[in-house]
Amino acid sequence: MTVHAVEVVREVFRRFNTGEDPFPLLDEEIVWDVPMIEGTYHGHRGVAEYFRNWIGTWDDYRIVLEDLKVGPDGRVLALFCEEGSGRGSGVPVHLHPASVWEVRHGKAISYRGYLDRDEAARDAGLQP
């Protein structure tokens, strides 16, 4: 098990939640792929743009990490919940997405988001 990769991903989630800078844990050339929402972003600037756009649609945004698992190739499957309310509408939103992270040399080099947790598990080499 790649414990270090799990700890990097756990720390990225923690930093997003506390408002601390997560970028030291993201490779400068990270590929941030969220095909079901926005597409693919590249590098720190791209990730910052993604979060400005995504979090800008929410009020009271929270992200709760539920579980981390390591696939056979060392990629990390993250299961999490996004909670808040729609900006402007006030409609409560509770999403239960997943992501697959690749970590090298202590930094995340890729992220891919999924709405379907089983699809994410399969992509990480873990059977749902």
How would you sum up this structure, described in words?
By secondary structure, this protein is of the alpha+beta class. It has a single domain (3-123), classed as Nuclear Transport Factor 2, Chain: A, CATH 3.10.450. 28% of the residues lie in helices and 44% in strands. Strands 1, 2, 3, 4, 5, 6 and 7 form a 7-stranded mixed beta sheet that branches. Strand 3 (58-70) and strand 4 (76-86) form a beta hairpin. The longest helix has 16 residues, at 3-18. The model has no long low-confidence stretch (mean pLDDT 92).
Q: What's the CATH architecture? A: Roll
Instruction: Tell me the number of structural domains.
Output: 1
Mean pLDDT: 92
Low-confidence runs of at least 5 consecutive residues: none
Oligomer kind: single chain
The CATH topology, please? Nuclear Transport Factor 2, Chain: A
* Class from helix and strand fractions: alpha+beta
Shape: globular
Tally of separate helices = 3
Instruction: Tell me the name of the CATH class.
Output: Alpha Beta
Binned strand content = 35-45%
* Separation of the first and last Cα atoms: 18 Å
Helix residue percentage: 25-40%
**Main sheet, how many strands, which sense, barrel?**
7 strands, mixed
Give me the count of strands.
7
Taking Cα atoms only, what radius of gyration do you get, to the nearest Å? 14 Å
Succession of helices and strands: HEEHEEEEEH
Descriptive keywords:
Nuclear Transport Factor 2, Chain: A, 7-stranded mixed beta sheet
Topology readout:
Layout: H1 3-18, E1 26-34, E2 39-42, H2 43-55, E3 58-70, E4 76-86, E5 92-95, E6 98-104, E7 107-114, H3 117-123
Parallel strand pairs: 1-7
Antiparallel strand pairs: 1-2, 3-4, 4-5, 4-6, 6-7
